[in-house]
């Protein structure tokens, strides 16, 4: 059973993948991945939205509960969706708590900024483990003007280093660094006692996270910093076409897929 403390001081890099449903979570867990992130990337990856902004608290809660039911060993981290935190601190803490209490998450992830330092401390104090997230934070796409690499200028890089330290000091158990220069991620990793988890942040983080659709080749598009380790879309398309052809040709269902009840013969 992976715990938030168990992610610290690992000899091998930490592995994290997203999952949004029970069968996928079961595969990720069986493969020995350390943590399953029920990311708000479900907006694009599973729910057909074109960003993460429309994802609701109930959608994350329902999917987190499904993932938690199918996961035995991996840590289950639920992502807090846009506006489920950050407007009112008490409501933010209550929402995070519900993801543990009602959906069985082990921890929450929060797209972080200056406004989430005190909130991280508050959540940690009441017993909610927080994974912070800096660099490209997709919930801020409208403010950032796109999904571009962050921390490329010295001032922006220093702000990320300062915020990383502030969240670690506030009690975050890990920090996701998304789409930042590898040398910045390396510097943050060096400076922090908590593990850093990179996505598009180079090899010097303590671990890596990818969106499952990108990793297994399920989506039609993947970011350039990702790698496709399989062709699930191709496999599914082949299987669906084979089913279609077998039904149309009468080859399926065959005798072994059907049951004839002899007592019913006289009905005909
Ligand atoms: O929502 C998500 O899947 C994420 C990861 C990309 C880190 O935030």
From TrEMBL:
Residue numbers binding Mg(2+): 40, 79, 111
Enzyme class name: transferase
Subcellular location: Cytoplasm
Protein residues bound to 3-methyl-2-oxobutanoate: 40-41, 79, 109
Free-text cofactor note: Binds 1 Mg(2+) ion per subunit.
Pathway named in the protein's UniProt entry: Cofactor biosynthesis; coenzyme A biosynthesis; Cofactor biosynthesis; (R)-pantothenate biosynthesis; (R)-pantoate from 3-methyl-2-oxobutanoate: step 1/2
EC number(s) given by UniProt: 2.1.2.11
A Pfam match: Pantoate_transf
One example GO MF annotation: metal ion binding
GO biological process, one term: coenzyme A biosynthetic process
Cofactor(s) for this UniProt protein: Mg(2+)
Superkingdom of this protein's organism: Archaea
Active-site residues from the entry: 178 (proton acceptor)
GO cellular component: cytoplasm
Keywords, in A-Z order: Coenzyme A biosynthesis, Cytoplasm, Magnesium, Metal-binding, Transferase
Oligomeric form and interacting partners: Homodecamer; pentamer of dimers.
Chain's role: Catalyzes the reversible reaction in which hydroxymethyl group from 5,10-methylenetetrahydrofolate is transferred onto alpha-ketoisovalerate to form ketopantoate.
Family statement drawn from the similarity comment of this UniProt entry: Belongs to the PanB family.
The protein's name in its UniProt record: 3-methyl-2-oxobutanoate hydroxymethyltransferase
Organism: Halorubrum laminariae
Lineage start: Archaea, Methanobacteriati, Methanobacteriota, Stenosarchaea group, Halobacteria
């Amino acid at each position: 059973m992976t715990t938030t403390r168990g992610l610290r001081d690992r000899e091998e890099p930490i592995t994290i993948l997203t999952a949004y449903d029970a069968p996928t979570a079961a595969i990720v867990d069986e493969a020995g991945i350390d943590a399953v992130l029920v990311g708000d990337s479900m907006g694009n990856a599973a729910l057909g939205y074109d960003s993460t902004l429309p994802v609701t608290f109930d959608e994350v809660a329902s999917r987190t509960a499904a993932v938690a039911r199918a996961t035995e060993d991996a840590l289950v981290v639920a992502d807090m969706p846009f506006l489920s935190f950050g407007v009112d601190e008490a409501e933010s803490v209550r929402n995070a708590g519900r993801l543990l209490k009602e959906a069985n998450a082990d921890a929450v992830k929060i797209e972080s900024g200056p406004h989430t330092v005190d909130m991280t401390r508050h959540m940690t104090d009441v017993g909610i483990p927080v994974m912070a997230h800096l660099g490209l934070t997709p919930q801020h796409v409208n403010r950032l003007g796109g999904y571009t690499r962050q921390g490329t200028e010295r001032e922006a890089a220093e702000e990320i280093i300062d915020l990383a330290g502030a969240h670690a000091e506030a009690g975050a158990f890990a920090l996701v660094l998304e789409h930042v220069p590898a040398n910045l991620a390396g510097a943050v990793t060096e400076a922090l006692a908590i593990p850093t988890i990179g996505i598009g942040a180079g090899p010097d983080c303590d671990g890596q996270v990818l969106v499952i659709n990108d990793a297994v080749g399920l989506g039609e598009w993947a970011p350039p910093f990702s790698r496709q380790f399989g062709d699930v879309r191709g496999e599914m398309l082949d299987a669906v076409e084979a089913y279609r052809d077998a039904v149309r040709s009468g080859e399926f269902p065959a005798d072994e897929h059907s049951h004839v009840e002899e007592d019913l013969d006289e009905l005909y």
